[in-house]
Protein backbone atom coordinates (compact mmCIF):
# COMPACT_ATOMS: atom_id res chain seq x y z
CA UNK A 1 0.00 0.00 0.00
CA UNK A 2 2.82 2.33 0.91
CA UNK A 3 4.59 1.72 -2.45
CA UNK A 4 1.33 2.37 -4.35
CA UNK A 5 0.99 5.58 -2.44
CA UNK A 6 4.56 6.62 -3.32
CA UNK A 7 3.94 5.98 -7.04
CA UNK A 8 0.79 8.06 -6.85
CA UNK A 9 2.75 10.75 -5.02
CA UNK A 10 5.46 10.82 -7.70
CA UNK A 11 2.86 11.15 -10.47
CA UNK A 12 1.32 14.11 -8.74
CA UNK A 13 4.72 15.69 -8.12
CA UNK A 14 5.44 15.45 -11.86
CA UNK A 15 2.28 17.46 -12.48
CA UNK A 16 3.29 19.95 -9.80
CA UNK A 17 6.73 20.45 -11.37
CA UNK A 18 5.17 20.81 -14.81
CA UNK A 19 2.85 23.46 -13.51
CA UNK A 20 5.73 25.27 -11.85
CA UNK A 21 7.76 25.29 -15.05
CA UNK A 22 5.38 27.63 -16.86
CA UNK A 23 5.04 31.40 -16.90
CA UNK A 24 2.37 31.23 -14.24
CA UNK A 25 4.25 28.71 -12.15
CA UNK A 26 5.11 31.05 -9.33
CA UNK A 27 1.47 31.94 -8.93
CA UNK A 28 0.40 28.29 -8.89
CA UNK A 29 3.09 27.29 -6.42
CA UNK A 30 1.38 28.29 -3.21
CA UNK A 31 -1.96 26.83 -4.20
CA UNK A 32 -0.63 23.54 -5.59
CA UNK A 33 1.81 22.95 -2.77
CA UNK A 34 -0.70 23.61 -0.04
CA UNK A 35 -3.34 21.47 -1.82
CA UNK A 36 -0.94 18.63 -2.40
CA UNK A 37 0.42 18.46 1.12
CA UNK A 38 -3.09 18.58 2.54
CA UNK A 39 -4.18 15.75 0.23
CA UNK A 40 -0.99 13.78 0.90
CA UNK A 41 -1.49 13.96 4.63
CA UNK A 42 -5.07 12.79 4.34
CA UNK A 43 -4.19 9.94 1.94
CA UNK A 44 -1.53 8.74 4.35
CA UNK A 45 -4.03 8.91 7.17
CA UNK A 46 -6.57 6.86 5.19
CA UNK A 47 -4.24 4.08 3.94
CA UNK A 48 -1.81 3.76 6.83
CA UNK A 49 -4.64 3.23 9.33
CA UNK A 50 -7.12 1.28 7.19
CA UNK A 51 -9.28 0.24 10.10
CA UNK A 52 -9.88 3.70 11.43
CA UNK A 53 -13.40 4.60 10.34
CA UNK A 54 -12.81 8.30 11.03
CA UNK A 55 -9.70 8.37 8.87
CA UNK A 56 -11.55 6.50 6.09
CA UNK A 57 -14.28 9.10 6.04
CA UNK A 58 -11.61 11.80 5.99
CA UNK A 59 -9.79 10.09 3.11
CA UNK A 60 -12.97 9.60 1.07
CA UNK A 61 -13.77 13.26 1.56
CA UNK A 62 -10.31 14.11 0.29
CA UNK A 63 -10.75 11.95 -2.78
CA UNK A 64 -14.11 13.60 -3.49
CA UNK A 65 -12.19 16.87 -3.55
CA UNK A 66 -9.17 15.74 -5.51
CA UNK A 67 -10.94 13.78 -8.26
CA UNK A 68 -12.95 16.77 -9.59
CA UNK A 69 -9.78 18.83 -9.36
CA UNK A 70 -7.83 16.34 -11.49
CA UNK A 71 -10.72 15.99 -13.96
CA UNK A 72 -10.81 19.74 -14.52
CA UNK A 73 -7.02 20.09 -14.43
CA UNK A 74 -5.51 16.87 -15.87
CA UNK A 75 -1.74 16.68 -16.48
CA UNK A 76 -0.98 18.78 -19.53
CA UNK A 77 -3.40 21.57 -18.73
CA UNK A 78 -2.66 24.71 -16.74
CA UNK A 79 -5.06 25.85 -14.06
CA UNK A 80 -7.45 28.18 -15.86
CA UNK A 81 -8.61 30.10 -12.82
CA UNK A 82 -5.05 31.05 -11.87
CA UNK A 83 -4.11 31.70 -15.47
CA UNK A 84 -6.85 34.33 -15.80
CA UNK A 85 -5.87 36.00 -12.55
CA UNK A 86 -2.20 36.27 -13.42
CA UNK A 87 -1.22 39.82 -14.45
CA UNK A 88 1.09 40.12 -17.46
CA UNK A 89 4.72 41.19 -17.19
CA UNK A 90 5.04 39.77 -13.71
CA UNK A 91 8.61 39.67 -12.59
CA UNK A 92 10.70 38.52 -9.66
CA UNK A 93 9.77 40.34 -6.50
CA UNK A 94 6.49 41.67 -7.85
CA UNK A 95 3.29 41.22 -5.97
CA UNK A 96 0.73 39.05 -7.78
CA UNK A 97 -2.10 41.27 -6.58
CA UNK A 98 -5.10 38.96 -6.40
CA UNK A 99 -8.42 40.62 -5.64
CA UNK A 100 -7.25 44.20 -6.19
CA UNK A 101 -8.05 46.84 -8.80
CA UNK A 102 -6.01 46.68 -11.98
CA UNK A 103 -5.22 49.02 -14.82
CA UNK A 104 -7.04 47.79 -17.91
CA UNK A 105 -6.46 50.56 -20.48
CA UNK A 106 -4.11 53.51 -20.98
CA UNK A 107 -5.12 56.18 -23.52
CA UNK A 108 -2.97 59.16 -24.49
CA UNK A 109 -4.11 62.27 -26.35
CA UNK A 110 -1.88 65.02 -27.72
CA UNK A 111 -3.77 68.33 -28.00
CA UNK A 112 -2.72 71.68 -29.44
CA UNK A 113 -4.73 74.67 -28.18
CA UNK A 114 -4.20 78.29 -29.29
CA UNK A 115 -2.90 80.72 -26.69
CA UNK A 116 -4.58 84.07 -26.03
CA UNK A 117 -2.20 85.78 -28.44
CA UNK A 118 1.56 85.34 -28.56
CA UNK A 119 3.41 84.68 -25.32
CA UNK A 120 7.11 85.54 -24.96
CA UNK A 121 9.51 84.32 -22.29
CA UNK A 122 13.32 84.13 -22.34
CA UNK A 123 13.25 80.82 -24.24
CA UNK A 124 10.76 81.45 -27.03
CA UNK A 125 7.73 83.20 -28.44
CA UNK A 126 4.78 80.95 -29.20
CA UNK A 127 1.06 81.01 -29.88
CA UNK A 128 0.00 77.40 -29.26
CA UNK A 129 0.18 75.14 -26.21
CA UNK A 130 0.84 71.50 -27.12
CA UNK A 131 -0.21 69.36 -24.17
CA UNK A 132 -0.70 65.69 -23.30
CA UNK A 133 -3.73 64.15 -21.61
CA UNK A 134 -3.70 60.61 -20.21
CA UNK A 135 -6.79 58.59 -19.35
CA UNK A 136 -6.32 55.36 -17.41
CA UNK A 137 -9.25 52.96 -16.93
CA UNK A 138 -9.38 50.24 -14.28
CA UNK A 139 -10.92 46.79 -14.63
CA UNK A 140 -13.82 48.17 -12.56
CA UNK A 141 -14.46 50.87 -15.18
CA UNK A 142 -13.14 53.75 -13.04
CA UNK A 143 -11.11 56.34 -14.95
CA UNK A 144 -8.28 58.64 -13.88
CA UNK A 145 -6.90 61.67 -15.72
CA UNK A 146 -3.38 63.01 -16.02
CA UNK A 147 -2.18 66.04 -17.96
CA UNK A 148 1.15 67.73 -18.63
CA UNK A 149 1.81 70.86 -20.64
CA UNK A 150 5.47 70.91 -21.71
CA UNK A 151 7.22 74.22 -22.15
CA UNK A 152 10.70 74.85 -23.55
CA UNK A 153 13.29 75.33 -20.83
CA UNK A 154 11.43 73.25 -18.26
CA UNK A 155 10.66 70.07 -20.18
CA UNK A 156 13.28 67.82 -21.70
CA UNK A 157 10.57 66.14 -23.78
CA UNK A 158 8.20 67.59 -26.36
CA UNK A 159 4.49 66.77 -26.29
CA UNK A 160 4.99 64.36 -29.19
CA UNK A 161 7.76 62.54 -27.32
CA UNK A 162 5.65 62.34 -24.16
CA UNK A 163 2.75 60.79 -26.09
CA UNK A 164 5.09 58.23 -27.69
CA UNK A 165 6.84 57.42 -24.39
CA UNK A 166 3.59 56.80 -22.53
CA UNK A 167 1.95 54.91 -25.38
CA UNK A 168 4.87 52.69 -26.39
CA UNK A 169 7.03 52.38 -23.28
CA UNK A 170 4.91 53.03 -20.19
CA UNK A 171 1.49 51.61 -21.13
CA UNK A 172 2.73 48.01 -21.47
CA UNK A 173 4.29 48.30 -18.01
CA UNK A 174 1.05 49.62 -16.53
CA UNK A 175 -1.67 47.29 -17.86
CA UNK A 176 -2.56 44.65 -15.27
CA UNK A 177 -0.99 46.65 -12.45
CA UNK A 178 -2.55 47.94 -9.25
CA UNK A 179 -2.91 51.72 -9.71
CA UNK A 180 -2.97 52.20 -5.94
CA UNK A 181 0.52 50.80 -5.43
CA UNK A 182 2.29 53.96 -6.50
CA UNK A 183 5.66 52.92 -5.09
CA UNK A 184 5.76 49.82 -7.26
CA UNK A 185 4.36 51.59 -10.33
CA UNK A 186 6.82 54.47 -10.17
CA UNK A 187 9.71 52.09 -9.60
CA UNK A 188 8.73 50.16 -12.73
CA UNK A 189 8.43 53.35 -14.79
CA UNK A 190 11.81 54.54 -13.56
CA UNK A 191 13.57 51.24 -14.25
CA UNK A 192 15.50 51.30 -17.49
CA UNK A 193 14.72 54.92 -18.26
CA UNK A 194 16.09 57.96 -16.49
CA UNK A 195 14.38 61.30 -16.96
CA UNK A 196 10.93 61.34 -18.57
CA UNK A 197 9.66 63.30 -15.57
CA UNK A 198 6.84 64.84 -17.61
CA UNK A 199 5.71 61.44 -18.90
CA UNK A 200 5.88 59.93 -15.45
CA UNK A 201 3.99 62.88 -13.99
CA UNK A 202 1.12 62.40 -16.45
CA UNK A 203 0.80 58.71 -15.59
CA UNK A 204 1.19 59.26 -11.86
CA UNK A 205 -1.49 61.96 -11.88
CA UNK A 206 -3.91 59.63 -13.69
CA UNK A 207 -3.33 56.89 -11.11
CA UNK A 208 -3.74 59.31 -8.19
CA UNK A 209 -6.99 60.58 -9.75
CA UNK A 210 -8.23 57.06 -10.42
CA UNK A 211 -7.50 55.74 -6.93
CA UNK A 212 -9.01 58.83 -5.28
CA UNK A 213 -12.15 58.41 -7.40
CA UNK A 214 -12.37 54.72 -6.49
CA UNK A 215 -12.40 55.79 -2.83
CA UNK A 216 -14.74 58.72 -3.52
CA UNK A 217 -12.32 61.23 -2.02
CA UNK A 218 -10.61 64.29 -3.46
CA UNK A 219 -6.88 64.26 -4.16
CA UNK A 220 -6.56 66.78 -1.31
CA UNK A 221 -7.96 64.13 1.02
CA UNK A 222 -5.77 61.49 -0.63
CA UNK A 223 -2.77 63.66 0.29
CA UNK A 224 -3.87 64.04 3.90
CA UNK A 225 -6.37 66.86 3.67
CA UNK A 226 -6.47 70.55 2.81
CA UNK A 227 -5.29 73.27 5.20
CA UNK A 228 -7.04 76.00 3.21
CA UNK A 229 -10.23 76.07 1.18
CA UNK A 230 -9.56 78.98 -1.18
CA UNK A 231 -6.57 80.16 -3.20
CA UNK A 232 -5.27 83.44 -4.57
CA UNK A 233 -3.74 83.42 -8.04
CA UNK A 234 -0.78 85.26 -9.49
CA UNK A 235 -1.15 87.15 -12.78
CA UNK A 236 1.29 86.53 -15.65
CA UNK A 237 3.01 89.26 -17.69
CA UNK A 238 5.24 88.21 -20.59
CA UNK A 239 8.21 90.03 -22.11
CA UNK A 240 6.67 93.10 -23.71
CA UNK A 241 7.11 96.86 -23.82
CA UNK A 242 6.97 98.79 -20.51
CA UNK A 243 3.70 100.40 -21.61
CA UNK A 244 2.01 97.10 -22.43
CA UNK A 245 3.32 95.42 -19.27
CA UNK A 246 2.04 98.31 -17.16
CA UNK A 247 -1.35 98.20 -18.88
CA UNK A 248 -1.68 94.46 -18.30
CA UNK A 249 -0.63 94.77 -14.64
CA UNK A 250 -3.21 97.49 -14.00
CA UNK A 251 -5.84 95.33 -15.68
CA UNK A 252 -5.00 92.34 -13.45
CA UNK A 253 -5.11 94.48 -10.33
CA UNK A 254 -8.47 95.85 -11.42
CA UNK A 255 -9.83 92.33 -11.76
CA UNK A 256 -8.86 91.47 -8.20
CA UNK A 257 -5.39 89.95 -8.49
CA UNK A 258 -2.99 90.88 -5.71
CA UNK A 259 0.27 89.82 -7.32
CA UNK A 260 1.84 89.37 -10.75
CA UNK A 261 4.94 87.84 -12.27
CA UNK A 262 6.91 89.78 -14.85
CA UNK A 263 9.00 87.75 -17.26
CA UNK A 264 12.50 89.13 -17.77
CA UNK A 265 14.75 89.16 -20.84
CA UNK A 266 16.33 91.61 -23.21
CA UNK A 267 18.93 93.05 -20.87
CA UNK A 268 19.18 94.81 -17.52
CA UNK A 269 17.99 98.17 -18.84
CA UNK A 270 14.91 96.73 -20.57
CA UNK A 271 13.98 94.68 -17.49
CA UNK A 272 14.47 97.67 -15.21
CA UNK A 273 12.24 99.84 -17.39
CA UNK A 274 9.49 97.20 -17.57
CA UNK A 275 9.45 96.58 -13.81
CA UNK A 276 9.53 100.31 -13.09
CA UNK A 277 6.54 100.90 -15.38
CA UNK A 278 4.57 98.07 -13.76
CA UNK A 279 5.35 99.20 -10.22
CA UNK A 280 4.20 102.73 -11.05
CA UNK A 281 0.99 101.31 -12.59
CA UNK A 282 -0.02 99.10 -9.67
CA UNK A 283 1.27 101.11 -6.71
CA UNK A 284 2.87 99.72 -3.60
CA UNK A 285 0.03 97.45 -2.42
CA UNK A 286 0.62 94.78 -5.04
CA UNK A 287 3.19 91.97 -5.00
CA UNK A 288 5.55 91.77 -7.96
CA UNK A 289 7.70 88.81 -8.92
CA UNK A 290 10.33 88.74 -11.66
CA UNK A 291 11.40 85.62 -13.56
CA UNK A 292 14.66 85.65 -15.56
CA UNK A 293 14.21 82.05 -16.77
CA UNK A 294 17.95 81.32 -16.39
CA UNK A 295 18.72 84.09 -18.86
CA UNK A 296 21.73 85.83 -17.25
CA UNK A 297 25.27 85.10 -16.15
CA UNK A 298 26.11 85.66 -12.51
CA UNK A 299 27.68 89.10 -12.93
CA UNK A 300 24.74 90.44 -14.96
CA UNK A 301 22.22 88.84 -12.62
CA UNK A 302 23.81 90.59 -9.63
CA UNK A 303 23.73 93.88 -11.50
CA UNK A 304 20.07 93.31 -12.37
CA UNK A 305 19.11 92.28 -8.83
CA UNK A 306 20.74 95.37 -7.33
CA UNK A 307 19.12 97.70 -9.85
CA UNK A 308 15.55 96.38 -9.35
CA UNK A 309 15.81 96.03 -5.56
CA UNK A 310 14.31 99.50 -5.26
CA UNK A 311 10.98 98.22 -6.62
CA UNK A 312 10.31 96.03 -3.57
CA UNK A 313 10.01 92.75 -5.45
CA UNK A 314 8.63 89.70 -3.70
CA UNK A 315 11.25 87.51 -5.39
CA UNK A 316 13.66 87.15 -8.30
CA UNK A 317 13.25 83.78 -9.98
CA UNK A 318 16.01 81.69 -11.55
CA UNK A 319 18.44 84.51 -12.40
CA UNK A 320 21.18 82.18 -13.71
CA UNK A 321 21.42 78.86 -15.58
CA UNK A 322 19.82 75.75 -14.08
CA UNK A 323 23.11 74.02 -13.25
CA UNK A 324 24.83 77.03 -11.68
CA UNK A 325 23.71 76.54 -8.08
CA UNK A 326 26.82 78.25 -6.69
CA UNK A 327 26.20 81.18 -9.03
CA UNK A 328 22.64 81.51 -7.78
CA UNK A 329 23.91 81.46 -4.20
CA UNK A 330 26.23 84.32 -5.10
CA UNK A 331 23.37 86.34 -6.60
CA UNK A 332 21.46 85.74 -3.38
CA UNK A 333 24.39 86.99 -1.28
CA UNK A 334 25.36 89.96 -3.42
CA UNK A 335 22.09 90.92 -5.09
CA UNK A 336 20.96 93.57 -2.65
CA UNK A 337 18.70 91.43 -0.49
CA UNK A 338 16.03 90.46 -2.98
CA UNK A 339 14.70 86.92 -2.21
CA UNK A 340 15.82 84.35 -4.78
CA UNK A 341 13.64 81.52 -6.06
CA UNK A 342 14.95 78.38 -7.80
CA UNK A 343 12.83 77.00 -10.65
CA UNK A 344 14.74 75.41 -13.52
CA UNK A 345 17.43 74.34 -11.00
CA UNK A 346 14.89 72.26 -9.09
CA UNK A 347 13.83 68.90 -10.50
CA UNK A 348 14.19 66.05 -8.03
CA UNK A 349 15.07 65.69 -4.37
CA UNK A 350 18.78 65.57 -5.14
CA UNK A 351 18.65 68.97 -6.80
CA UNK A 352 16.69 70.38 -3.86
CA UNK A 353 19.37 69.16 -1.48
CA UNK A 354 22.07 70.82 -3.62
CA UNK A 355 20.13 74.10 -3.43
CA UNK A 356 19.70 73.81 0.34
CA UNK A 357 23.38 72.95 0.92
CA UNK A 358 24.54 75.88 -1.21
CA UNK A 359 22.13 78.25 0.55
CA UNK A 360 21.16 79.29 -2.96
CA UNK A 361 17.47 80.18 -2.56
CA UNK A 362 14.81 81.57 -0.26
CA UNK A 363 11.99 79.90 -2.16
CA UNK A 364 11.51 77.09 -4.62
CA UNK A 365 9.15 76.91 -7.54
CA UNK A 366 7.38 73.57 -7.92
CA UNK A 367 5.11 72.21 -10.62
CA UNK A 368 3.44 68.80 -10.68
CA UNK A 369 4.67 68.31 -14.24
CA UNK A 370 8.27 69.43 -13.60
CA UNK A 371 8.70 67.43 -10.39
CA UNK A 372 7.33 64.16 -11.83
CA UNK A 373 3.90 63.91 -10.24
CA UNK A 374 1.71 64.89 -7.31
CA UNK A 375 3.48 62.72 -4.75
CA UNK A 376 7.03 63.73 -5.67
CA UNK A 377 6.01 67.38 -5.63
CA UNK A 378 4.42 67.00 -2.20
CA UNK A 379 7.56 65.30 -0.87
CA UNK A 380 9.78 68.07 -2.24
CA UNK A 381 7.52 70.72 -0.71
CA UNK A 382 7.74 69.10 2.71
CA UNK A 383 11.54 68.82 2.54
CA UNK A 384 11.77 72.47 1.49
CA UNK A 385 9.52 73.45 4.38
CA UNK A 386 11.74 71.57 6.82
CA UNK A 387 14.74 73.48 5.44
CA UNK A 388 12.99 76.82 5.96
CA UNK A 389 12.20 77.44 2.28
CA UNK A 390 8.82 78.61 1.09
CA UNK A 391 7.17 77.36 -2.09
CA UNK A 392 5.51 78.92 -5.10
CA UNK A 393 3.40 76.38 -6.91
CA UNK A 394 1.95 76.26 -10.38
CA UNK A 395 2.41 76.05 -14.11
CA UNK A 396 1.41 79.10 -16.13
CA UNK A 397 0.34 77.03 -19.14
CA UNK A 398 -1.54 74.19 -17.47
CA UNK A 399 -4.76 72.78 -18.86
CA UNK A 400 -7.65 71.98 -16.52
CA UNK A 401 -6.55 68.59 -15.23
CA UNK A 402 -3.04 69.73 -14.37
CA UNK A 403 -4.36 72.95 -12.94
CA UNK A 404 -6.89 71.23 -10.71
CA UNK A 405 -4.16 68.86 -9.51
CA UNK A 406 -1.96 71.82 -8.58
CA UNK A 407 -4.82 73.60 -6.84
CA UNK A 408 -5.59 70.55 -4.72
CA UNK A 409 -1.90 70.08 -3.92
CA UNK A 410 -1.45 73.75 -3.03
CA UNK A 411 -4.25 73.48 -0.49
CA UNK A 412 -2.46 70.75 1.44
CA UNK A 413 0.60 72.66 2.68
CA UNK A 414 1.00 75.98 4.46
CA UNK A 415 4.48 76.33 2.96
CA UNK A 416 2.86 77.42 -0.34
CA UNK A 417 2.64 81.20 -0.42
CA UNK A 418 -0.36 83.08 -1.80
CA UNK A 419 -0.31 83.73 -5.51
CA UNK A 420 -0.69 80.32 -7.13
CA UNK A 421 0.87 80.30 -10.58
CA UNK A 422 -1.46 77.68 -12.08
CA UNK A 423 -2.95 80.22 -14.42
CA UNK A 424 -3.46 78.34 -17.66
CA UNK A 425 -6.84 79.99 -18.33
CA UNK A 426 -5.10 83.40 -18.42
CA UNK A 427 -2.82 82.21 -21.22
CA UNK A 428 -4.68 79.44 -23.08
CA UNK A 429 -7.82 80.15 -25.10
CA UNK A 430 -9.71 76.93 -24.32
CA UNK A 431 -9.63 73.84 -22.12
CA UNK A 432 -10.27 70.10 -22.34
CA UNK A 433 -12.47 69.70 -19.25
CA UNK A 434 -16.24 70.08 -19.23
CA UNK A 435 -16.29 72.89 -16.67
CA UNK A 436 -13.15 75.04 -17.06
CA UNK A 437 -11.88 76.59 -13.85
CA UNK A 438 -12.64 80.29 -13.46
CA UNK A 439 -9.79 82.34 -11.99
CA UNK A 440 -10.58 85.57 -13.81
CA UNK A 441 -11.11 87.36 -10.48
CA UNK A 442 -7.78 86.25 -9.02
CA UNK A 443 -9.14 83.69 -6.56
CA UNK A 444 -10.99 80.37 -6.49
CA UNK A 445 -12.06 77.68 -4.07
CA UNK A 446 -9.95 74.55 -3.81
CA UNK A 447 -11.80 71.93 -5.93
CA UNK A 448 -13.66 69.39 -3.83
CA UNK A 449 -14.91 66.67 -6.18
CA UNK A 450 -13.67 63.09 -6.22
CA UNK A 451 -10.16 62.78 -7.62
CA UNK A 452 -9.13 66.03 -9.27
CA UNK A 453 -12.83 66.89 -9.55
CA UNK A 454 -12.76 67.36 -13.32
CA UNK A 455 -14.30 65.55 -16.30
CA UNK A 456 -12.71 65.24 -19.72
CA UNK A 457 -14.55 66.95 -22.58
CA UNK A 458 -14.13 64.46 -25.43
CA UNK A 459 -15.54 66.90 -27.98
CA UNK A 460 -12.67 69.29 -27.12
CA UNK A 461 -10.16 66.47 -27.24
CA UNK A 462 -11.37 65.61 -30.75
CA UNK A 463 -11.27 69.25 -31.81
CA UNK A 464 -7.68 69.92 -30.69
CA UNK A 465 -6.11 66.51 -31.04
CA UNK A 466 -2.90 66.24 -33.08
CA UNK A 467 -1.87 62.68 -32.17
MG1 LIG B 1 10.05 80.12 -13.80
Task: Give the key terms.
467 residues; alpha/beta; Enolase-like, domain 1; TIM Barrel; 3 domains; 18 helices
Identify low-pLDDT runs: 16-39, 78-97
Number of domains: 3
Helix content: 40-55%
Total DSSP E strands: 12
Biggest sheet character: 7 strands, parallel
Tell me, rounded to a whole number, the average pLDDT.
Answer: 86
Euclidean distance between termini CA atoms:
70 Å
Shape: globular
CATH level 4 superfamily of the largest domain:
Enolase-like C-terminal domain
- Briefly note the structural class of the backbone: alpha/beta
The top level CATH class name of the largest domain:
Alpha Beta
Looking across the biggest beta sheet, what order are the strands in?
5-6-7-8-9-10-11
Give an overview in words.
By secondary structure, the protein is α/β, with parallel strands linked by helices. The protein is 46% helix and 15% strand. It contains 18 helices and 12 strands. The strands form 3 sheets. The chain has a 7-stranded parallel β-sheet with strand order 5-6-7-8-9-10-11. The protein has a 3-stranded antiparallel β-sheet with strand order 1-2-3. Helix 5 (159-174) packs across helix 7 (197-214). The longest helix has 24 residues, at 25-48. The chain starts with a helix and ends with a helix. Residues 16-39 and 78-97 have low confidence and may be disordered. Magnesium ion binds next to loops.
Amino acid sequence: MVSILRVFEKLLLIQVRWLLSGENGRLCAGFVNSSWFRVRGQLLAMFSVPFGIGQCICGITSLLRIVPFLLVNPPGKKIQLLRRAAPPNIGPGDLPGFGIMKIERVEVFGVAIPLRGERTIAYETRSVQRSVVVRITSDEGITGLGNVDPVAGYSSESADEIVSTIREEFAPKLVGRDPANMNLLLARLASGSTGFLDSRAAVEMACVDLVSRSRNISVSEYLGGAVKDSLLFNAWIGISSPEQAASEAAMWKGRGFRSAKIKLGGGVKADYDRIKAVREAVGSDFYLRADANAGYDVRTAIELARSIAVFDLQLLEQPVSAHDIEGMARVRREGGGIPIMADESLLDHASLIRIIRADAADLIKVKVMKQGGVLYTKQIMETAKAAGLRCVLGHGFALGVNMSAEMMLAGTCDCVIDGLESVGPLNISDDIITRPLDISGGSAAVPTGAGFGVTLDMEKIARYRFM
